[in-house]
Amino acid sequence: MSENKLHQDDGRPRYVGPAVVVFPDGREAAVAASLVIRLDPATVPEFSYDRHSTWAGSLTLAVDDDVDLFDAAPGILRLPDGREGEFMATSGPRESGCSGLGPAPFG
Asked: Which residues of the chain have pLDDT under 70?
């Protein structure tokens, strides 16, 4: 399966590129991120960021750091332009799914 089939243009905003995970204890780790907007808050009546994940994707450690991405619970994802978003890691240690908490730091 080619990468194009994995990331078909469905019109949803995406981010694919470098990022930094900031752990609750302040440690940082460089990652490669592949993220997508899951839903537009404007389309959900009585939307609450506490009840809905608006963005999700995957994170992969960029270098062989001695960290476990699953320890980012919650963590902060910082993009190269400085935008940040809070997320929960959904697996780990070197590669992890992530589910955004609150507004997406992209799109």
From this structure: 1-10, 39-44, 47-53
Per-residue pLDDT tens digits for 73-82: 899 999 999 9
Q: Label residue 32 exposed, middle or buried (CB < 10 Å: 0-12, 13-18, 19+).
A: middle
Sketch the domain layout of the chain as residue ranges: 12-101
* Fold assignment, 12-101: Thrombin, subunit H (2.40.10)
Q: What is the pLDDT of residue 69?
A: 92
